[in-house]
Amino acid sequence: MSKYYLNYLDELESEAIFILREVWAQFENPVILFSGGKDSILVTHLAKKAFYPSKIPFPLMHVDTGHNFPETIEFRDDLIESLGAKLIVGSVQESIDNGRVAEEKGKNATRNALQITTLLDAIEANKVDCAIGGGRRDEEKARAKERFFSHRNDFGEWDPKNQRPELWNLLNGKHYEGEHFRAFPISNWTEMDVWNYIKRENISIPSLYFAHEREVVFRNNSWIPVSEYLKLEKGEKIEKKKIRFRTLGDITITGGIESDADTLDKIADEVSTMRKTERGDRSDDKRSETAMEDRKKQGYF
Question: What sections of 160-255 are H helices per DSSP?
């Protein structure tokens, strides 16, 4: 009898599909948190494989800052239509209009932190008991502390020092009413794994990930894309550069990198030589040494 071997991408895929099926088995009302970035696209692809030939059995939830890359929204809508999936949108603009949050002011004002209230409101309004995210341990030290199933209390808060043990492949989603979990099926993936898998599976991604000419401003050691939300500061000038983005978020905080990588092969080659972390051009993570962990404790993604 011949032996059956899995390569490392097959093993990561198998682990992620197991976690997605555990979510469906243990929770009553899960959603996939969908940002339009490569990681949430990957999780959605894995969910499609996990439940094939049926459709993905839970909705996708997008927290819309109102300051999006137009390409991201176009990609999101096309994907939802092709999947025949339900989309839930939480709007930061509505949270501002309703007085739930106040728009930041000042030089580096963003809507990044405001997403926390919108996300938690959407989770409560839709009675979500598990929000599946595309977070990976190699992205950022706070995300490295997350378990596959991470508990959130009645206020949506995370306590990294008080998580439930995950022994072998036992995942514990037990929670009281009002609490919820976050699930991270691709925690063990690296940025390189993601690109290799996207290439292997021929998964569609937004054009923003490929090098292209764009008007940008150099600010805080990153190339920030020009948009209607960007206010030029004294001494700043708009330049046209060939860049691409390693992560996608709110257009006001997502910095690009100069690059000639306009194909998946070139992106994989580029990533393999990089020393800077994937989120090194995100201004939201530059606010303090513990910026991500502080936000996550409050309920951030």
Answer: 191-201
Instruction: Give me the pLDDT at residue 287, please.
Output: 64
Instruction: Classify residue 264 by its DSSP letter.
Output: H
**Which stretches of the chain score pLDDT less than 50?**
none
Residue 285's pLDDT is 62
Which DSSP letter does residue 253 get?
A: T
Residue 148, both tokens: 């596959």
Beta-bridge partners for 90: 63
User: What's residue 299's pLDDT?
Assistant: 84
| Edge-to-edge strand list for the sheet holding 212-219 | 222-225, 212-219, 239-244, 257-258
Q: Where are the beta strands (DSSP E) in the chain?
A: 30-33, 60-64, 87-91, 130-132, 149-152, 180-183, 212-219, 222-225, 239-244, 257-258
- Read off the pLDDT of residues 184-206 as tens digits, 9 standing for 90 and up: 999 999 999 999 999 999 999 99
Query: Measured between alpha carbons, how far is 83 from 227 in angstroms, rounded to an integer?
Result: 30
Residue labelled with tokens 């378990």: 147
CA distance 85 to 95: 25
